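Give me structure tokens for this 402-residue protein.
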Amino acid sequence: MTKILRSSVDEASLDRLLGLESSKIGYYSEVKQKIQELEAANHGLRSRTRELQAVFDSICDGVVIYDGNGCVQYRNRVCPSLFPEETVIGSPCGELFHPALPSDPGHCPVERALRGESVQLSFTSTGSHRETRYFDATVTPIEENLGEHRALLFLRDVTDRRIQELQLVQAEKMSSIGVLAAGVAHEINNPLASVAGYAEALLRRFRDEKWLSDDDRLQVFQKYLEVIMKETYRCKGIIDSLLTFSRKPQGGAGMVDLNLVLREVLELVRYKSRYEQVEINCSLQHDLPPVLAEDSGLRQVFMNLLLNAHQSISGPGEIEISTYVADGMGVACIRDSGCGIAPQQLDQIWNPFFTTKTVGQGLGLGLAITYNIVKKQGGEIQVESQQGQGSTFTVRMPLCRD
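Here you go.
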């Protein structure tokens, strides 16, 4: 019996015999080509992703993308400076909107956008330092081909614009009050002039007619007339100060007497001091040289500072006002014995809308406007304060040079 011997043929030889070697080479070559194409496509996608991320981050407004569950999926680099915690990846939309809006999900703009609705709204946010900021928001739906829904949020900080609008409203209000005050003042001045004129005429009769001055029973009337004249002219001085305060600025700096401006403002707030049992002590340098400033602006500065000093005092208190020259500057100091300012708030008091007062007692614009007026006129303003002991505001203005 013939014995059949099994020959061992390796895989490579078998491939050559069957002609499969060339087909494998073609297969591997095709796979390699596909891999290279995929690598090139991935490189292009990564490059495109970097470009889109750069565009995303270059937008000056805050941009947030919410997923279908209303949670933050992406945010650009501006968002952490606006809302660092509320826009963290994975945060629900309620972290941002529900503190300012009703907690009902139906009111959430992101939830509404996920249902296919475009929403525009404005809202406010109070930071850790109690400063209020204003925002405009636009939320639009992102519809995917796979039926998924996402929401795109644009956040714009409009605080500066809002400040300008409020300052414009305040300026228009002050202008209207100025016109009204001028008209009322002129109407009041006429009867006051009559009262003062008749009082002077009666006093002249007392001095000229001996029989009147010799009658002891009539001496008290002479004293009454002197009081009437004194108080009438004091009223006229208050009205003149009010007219000066409400007068529109001339638009340029000039020689201003700090002492005179302070006296005019004090005349307007003195009634408030008496009513609130606040004692005002003045130490004004007699020969104080004039400063270079715009007088109506300085009046507003001192009016704001004095009103703030009054408001910081609860019950009887004291306000000290002093003027002097130091380092080539005319200096005015206003110190109060009020509640003072907390150390962590001292750097915030010049910020618009920052206030230590209770809600409804002020917008927080007074000191911001005061700071801007002083700075625009080349001056300086500083504050020193201890909580529970009072505050001292120091205004320095450049002296006029001959």
